[in-house]
Amino acid sequence: MLRWLLIMMVALAVVSCKSKKPVPTDTGEKGVIRISVDETFKPIIEEQIKVFQSSWPKTQIIAEYKPEADCWDDLLNDSTRMVIVTRKLTISEKSFYADSLGFFPATGLLAQDAVALVVNRNDKDSVFNKNEVQDLLTGQSKLPYKLVFDGAKATSTVRYAIDSILKGKKFNTANITAAKTSSDVVKYIAQNTGYIGFVGVSWIGNPEDTAQTNMLTKVRIAWLPCDSCDEAGTYTKPWQEDILTKRYPYVRDIVYVLKENHQGLGKAFVNFMMGDRGQLIFRRGYLVPAWKVFMMRETQIKLVKPIK
Going by C-beta distance under 8 Å and a sequence separation of 6 or more, which residues neighbour residue 16? Predict the structure, then answer.
């Protein structure tokens, strides 16, 4: 009897050891983690990681940039510690992860960006109203344009077009050219007339980025109706101030979801992005920080004058 009791105790101990998950070894100042990032946020998140790692050289954040749906798959399959996407977890998703992980993942807003529409410099039109944009997406437009997205499905830009622009209307993919990445969208527009590209503004809206300003000699950011201007018929572009005040109509969130139940590198990176330096990086990237209010200054750029 004693012999069988000892055997059972040993067997239970072996099973227990095998079922235990590895204990995380990373801290806020050292270690390696993997994160998955919506590809539309690549320019700004690369800058965040660069500055963070320069301050804590014993850390390494390995970021993979991919469509938003793939980021969520990584989170589900436990192949990443954190995702940076355009929406928070739903209530049902929170419950699911709490059941599978034993704790609720942390999630929160980091900043806001916008979806910009870009056209070739040689195209005549660069001013569109909301109905025209909807008609282009549903395939009912009489305008001589086809559309370019960073993929025909599974990307945050496509999801934004369906959820926030079409708002229930059917998305017609027959009129869509699918580029591989946001950078490819801008390059395609630069090389072809008769197309409108949908792209995150961080790829085209930073006037201090030489590559982006060079690209703006080949493409134009389209004007769209102002959502909260006093005068009817006022149009705007995704400038930082107009994203902040919601005058630009196509604004969206930059959100993190973190699976970490210890004081690790993931939390340290989130705290950095939500702190003074991280928020300043968002601001200098011409996005809108979520947690720090920075003074807006008028510029001498002539293009900021609204079209009526």
Answer: none
Helices (H) and strands (E) in the chain, counts: 11, 12
The parent domain of residue 136 ranges over: 114-251
Residues 200 and 151: beta-carbon distance below 8 Å: no
Residue 222 near residue 117, CB atoms below 8 Å: yes
- Is 70 exceeded by the pLDDT of residue 144? yes
Residues 131 and 89 in one domain: no
Q: How confident is the model at residue 252 (pLDDT cuts 50, 70, 90)?
A: very high
Domain presence at residue 36: yes
Phi, psi of 115 (to 5 degrees): -95, 120
Task: Assess if residue 302 is contained within a domain.
Answer: no
Strand partners, 224: 236
One domain, residues 241 and 258 = no
Give the number of other CB atoms < 10 A from CB of residue 34: 15
In contact, 35 and 27? CB cutoff 8 Å: no
**pLDDT per position as a tens digit, 229-246:** 888 889 999 999 999 999
Paired tokens of 154: 């599974």
Task: Assess contact for 256 and 89: CB atoms under 8 A.
Answer: no
Spatial distance between the Cα atoms of 50 and 227, rounded to a whole number of angstroms: 36
| Residues 145 and 230 both lie in one domain | yes
